[in-house]
Fold:
Amino acid sequence: MSRADVLRTGAGRRPHPLWSLGLLRSELLTTVRRWRTLALLGVLAAVPVLVGIAVRIETRGGGTVGGNGEGPAFITQITNNGLFLVFTALAATLPFFLPMAVGVVAGDAIAGEAGAGTLRYLLVAPAGRTRLLLVKYATVLAFCLLATLVVTVSALLVGALLFPMGELTTISGTRIGLAEELGRALLIALVVAASLVGVAALGLFVSTLTNSGIAAMATTVGLLITVQIVDQIPQLHALQPYLFPHYWLSFADLMRDPVYWDDLMNNLGLQALYAAVFGSAAWARFTAKDINA
Amino acid sequence: MAPYESDDAVGSAQDENPPSGRRKAARYAVPVAVVGVAAATIGLVPALADSGDPDLPKISAQQLINKIAKSDVQQLSGTVKVTTDLGLPDLGGLEKGLLSGADRGGSGDDSAADPQAKLTELASGTHTLRVAADGPDRQKLSLLESGAEYSLIHDGKDVWGYDSKSNQVHHSTAAGSGKERAEPPATPKDFADEALKSVDDTTSVTVDGTAHVAGRDAYKLLIQPRQSGTTVGAISIAVDAKTGLPLKFTLTPKSGGAAVFDAGFTQVSFARPAASTFDFTPPKGAKVTEEKDAARAPEHTREHGGGLAGGLEGKGGPKVLGKGWTSVATFDTGAKGGLPTGSRGGDLGGFLGSLGEKVTGKFGKGTVFSTRLVNALITDDGKVYAGAVTKDALVKAADAGK
Structure:
């Protein structure tokens, strides 16, 4: 049986479902074991520690921090309840640190393999390009969740150590108990992770365009910065509701009581749209391109 | 680039049995189709949802006004979108600084949670508010900001202002509990009440069909000034057919274009809001400012409730010239030399002067500051004339008032 035959049967007959899971697991392990990934996660975990210590030092004498409404969202409420450190940390990392980390991992997904010359070995296995792409995307999405949870857990630990916990005042002025607080914190972490779905799909598409992992990462992060800048220019307001970072900070609406869903739904819908457009573009490119490395 | 890039690259490409050029290109139709479907959905869904005004029994303008007057909605909660477009130059932070500076100078109080300071923000741009009410003693008004919220909570005799961005609390007690509204106007009903006060022989009031507002069937009441000289084109009020509650208030200028002011419910419910909504305790670590003079709270309300000319009232006791839509409020700032618009005022004066337009008349000399709705004339001898009237009408009023 020639190599071509192997490939053709691989594409024609569905392999055992567990086989994909095995591929996913090996992809996840490869991604998480990289030094680069660990360094990114380390930086993300350090952000809440820095914010927490800074707020703690500044409010030692009973003062307030960011009294004029400056700094990231929720920063003034940290002294009221340590759980707000989770939201402050997510608000501080979501505009840049989190999507940058995702951009690095997503940009590397296909282009990195191509650059290292390992992509065709992956394709020799009876996986099929579509399946490989899906596994790669699933890996990037898992990383989105992992990165968000790293920030959340780190912030939760620092917040619990340095600040009081217990009953929390929502930004609407009402109070909720500890169980509901933790539920909302988890929901916010999930929404933040879901906010990164769009940039992950964009990164994956860029990754299929080139054979250089570095170029794909740089392009993704560069696009991210460009889009963020465009989102700030008032003259382009007609365009802004369609930019993927536009509704990112809407996760804060989960801290209102009752929750204000409009922007949250806009955000999730927009992320799904970006995932569909750039995911299918990545598929079109990846299944049609010549793999020669 | 890659060390493996060699002759067998060609072979590997053949291995994959790549689709022909046309079939390759066809794959790109998928993302294009996704974009197309999304664009169509974004474009069509609101249009479909909007289609068809509700069929409601005919009603006369007078009956509709009575319906509003009789409306007694005690319990509601909803979301209100307020858009103000006065056509002011976008000064960004500078404008905000000037406004809050002026405000602090006036009230001698620098809490970020002071209702008066906070609500000047509504004077420009689009804001989302949430309102909740349960009887006359319990109301809540929240201004939704990015990642923060400003809440004004009236619970019995307490009025709390909570600014989550700066974690500051402003507390005052409503003197005349019950009768006196402890909140500034923000709902379409408040504005509708003000507009209906001005309904007299200078005004034409008609029922202008029906509409869907916030998922409810509503009549549209159209109020148009008969007088010339006013900048107000028309006021449209959508009134809930069942409860008589005004759901949407739109003020369009005579000059045309987008509405100067638009306040409408985007979502409304007449169920009793949860009791916890009105329950407020200052959070730990928050800075609480107590209102020093308890009598000030109702005074706030009056100042804010003064309708279109209300915001322009000064401390010197304003006089109103003329009547109806062309009435002009005037007061003496007492400052001889008026605004520091000339060289006297330095940089800021020159900047303010550049925004206005110099006019002369029998009254002397002055500067007119124009917006799409309100025009104000500040004379060089320190008098201010302001109203929703054209520049010519303003000069005429100033001449007459001299």
